[in-house]
Amino acid sequence: MDADHLPEMLARLKLTALRDRLDTLLDEAARRELSLRETLALLCEAEVAHREERRIQMGLGIAKFPFVRTLEGFDFDAQPSLDPKQIRDLAACRWVANGDALLLLGPPGVGKSHLAVALGREAVRHGYSVLFVQATELITALARAHVEGRLEDKLAHYAKAKLLIVDEIGYLPFEPNAAHLFFQLVSRRYERGSMLVTSNRSVSEWGTVFGDPVVATAILDRLLHHSHVITIRGDSYRLREKRRAGLLKTNPAPAVTENTL
């Protein structure tokens, strides 16, 4: 057997990572005095690790995350209303496997989008397809597709991923027909795929957000049926940094009177 043809055979078998690192890996096996079986395991581990990393990078690209955020980079000390154990449990992605919804609620700047992206990245690592979209971008795309007669195709696009992340519901006004379009998407994904939604409005305000309390109730009925709801109560990270820099003054807490109880 001609060992010179080994790289060519590895390429034909599409073991490109193994082909490119073959000499280095064989040198490592010799240095560690590995048996033939152990050497084969070392070579296979290298190829599997390469394919897994390539899969993750491809999944992250398809997800279209607007920035890189991780759970390790989240400042839980700054948001004491959050339970780090609960977030770590969510990072295991059992809720994604079950097709549940996750709602992250709270005022601007408390880290909802950070957590949404971080949990989305964890879902990719666990092997799930993910798509991230801003709420206004989503509704605009659905409205345009509706006008152009392509709504079914657009709904299928947003329904395809195992986890759909819709960021920032309630920050900007929606299209007049937004509630009906979003309802169709939620219905399409109901008990089939997971949704992660962030909002600066409590669910009781979604009727105002969508401009249609009846349809908003139907949306929430489906989202909340199998769901995890996390409300973050705390200061904005951005405003806190400005206060530290002396750009904003910290206002004293108002006195509590009988009328405010």
From TrEMBL:
Origin, by domain of life?
Bacteria
UniProt-listed Pfam families: IstB_IS21 (PF01695)
Source species: Azospirillum argentinense
Entry's PANTHER family? ATP-BINDING PROTEIN RV3427C IN INSERTION SEQUENCE-RELATED, CHROMOSOMAL REPLICATION INITIATOR PROTEIN DNAA
- What InterPro entries does its record include? AAA+_ATPase (IPR003593), DNAC/IstB-like (IPR028350), IstB (IPR047661), IstB_ATP-bd (IPR002611), P-loop_NTPase (IPR027417)
- Where is each AAA+ ATPase domain found? 98-231
Write down what this protein is called.
AAA+ ATPase domain-containing protein
Name the UniProt key words of this record, in alphabetical order.
ATP-binding, Nucleotide-binding
| Presence of keyword Nucleotide-binding | yes
MF annotations from Gene Ontology: ATP binding
Q: Which GO terms describe its biological process?
A: DNA replication
What does the similarity note say? Belongs to the IS21/IS1162 putative ATP-binding protein family.
